[in-house]
């Protein structure tokens, strides 16, 4: 089994698990975590698709996309956590 195939399978598995968790869970924090796992799974598949096994080189474009996705993921996660705290705080008043 080659390295890129391992990353493809692991990324697809993470993506599938995250989609299942998004569909079955109602808790806001768990849904936010599922979105994070989904983004990482997609990044793994994207990085694995940029690997050329014949030459042993990687394409820098998927790496740039994955890095940009991680930066966006951190920003979106912070905004969603702040929103979840604000919504959850109102129900306790």
Description of the structure:
- It is built from three helices and two strands; from the N terminus they run ααββα.
- α2 runs antiparallel to α3.
- It is mainly alpha-helical.
- A hairpin with a 4-residue loop joins β1 and β2.
- The model has no long low-confidence stretch (mean pLDDT 90).
- It has a two-stranded antiparallel sheet.
- It has one domain: Helix Hairpins.
**What is the chain-wise order of helices and strands?**
HHEEH
N/C terminus separation: 56 Å
CATH-scheme architecture: Orthogonal Bundle
Q: List segments where confidence is low: pLDDT < 50 over at least 5 consecutive residues.
A: none
Give the overall average pLDDT.
90
Keywords for this structure?
elongated, transmembrane helix, 2 strands, mainly alpha, membrane, Putative monovalent cation/H+ antiporter subunit C, 93 residues, 3 helices, Helix Hairpins, transmembrane, 4% strand
List the helices and strands and how they pair.
Elements: H1 3-24, H2 28-49, E1 51-52, E2 57-58, H3 60-91
Concise account of the structure shown:
The chain has 93 residues and is mainly alpha-helical. The protein is built from 3 helices and 2 strands.
């Amino acid at each position: 089994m080659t390295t890129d195939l391992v990353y493809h399978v692991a990324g697809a598995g993470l993506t599938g698990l995250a989609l299942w968790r998004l569909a079955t869970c109602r808790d806001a924090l768990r849904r936010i975590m599922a979105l994070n796992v989904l983004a990482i799974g997609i990044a793994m598949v994207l990085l694995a698709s940029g690997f050329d096994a014949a030459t042993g080189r990687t394409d820098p474009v998927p790496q740039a996309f994955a890095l940009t996705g991680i930066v966006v993921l951190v920003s979106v996660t912070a905004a969603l956590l702040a929103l979840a705290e604000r919504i959850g705080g109102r129900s306790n008043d």
